[in-house]
Amino acid sequence: MTESMSGMLQKDMQCEGLLECFHDLKEIDTDIFQLLHERQSPLTVDEIAEQVERERSTAYRAVQRLLETGLIQKEQVNYEQGGYYHVYRLRYAKEIPNEMQRTLNDWYAQMVQLIGEFNDRYSEETQPAAPVES
């Protein structure tokens, strides 16, 4: 069940909570985001799984969620003798808050519109029904 806005505002939100709030991320997703931030160097899924102490498949799913949100990027590294592997790194850090601000602005505009519609629908003064004479 989705938490109410009032409930969210009563919580002591942390910086990492923004990622969960904006992108519906899980704890492991934010753990991996934090790991990539701390490392500041690209890591493979195997390295990520080892660092967060999770199965490779679990880490891979979390990495895919982070890719879908655009918080991290995938790079291909080629072997000299042929073949390749992928590494993952954070996107340019200054882009992320700007995107969150745009998302918040869009959400705010939608809420203003919905509040206006609510006001139009429910703020009309209704007259109490006249008593029925017998």
Order of strands in the sheet with the most strands? 1-2
- The total count of helices amounts to 6
Q: CATH superfamily of the largest domain, please?
A: Winged helix-like DNA-binding domain superfamily/Winged helix DNA-binding domain
User: Average pLDDT, to the nearest integer?
Assistant: 85
**The CATH top-level class label of the largest domain:** Mainly Alpha
Terminal CA distance reads 50 Å
| Beta content | 5-15%
Give me the secondary-structure category.
mainly alpha
Radius of gyration over C-alpha positions, nearest whole angstrom: 23 Å
* Shape by Cα distribution: elongated
* Number of DSSP strand runs: 2
Structure description:
This protein has 134 residues and is mainly alpha-helical. The chain has 2 domains: 13-91, Winged helix-like DNA-binding domain superfamily/Winged helix DNA-binding domain (Arc Repressor Mutant, subunit A, Orthogonal Bundle), CATH 1.10.10.10; 92-123. It is 58% helix and 10% strand. It contains 6 helices and 2 strands. The protein has helices at residues 5-10, 15-23, 27-39, 45-52, 56-69, 95-122, and strands spanning 72-78, 84-90. A two-stranded antiparallel sheet has the order 1-2. A hairpin with a 5-residue loop joins β1 and β2 (84-90). The protein is elongated. It starts with a helix and ends in a 12-residue tail after the last helix.
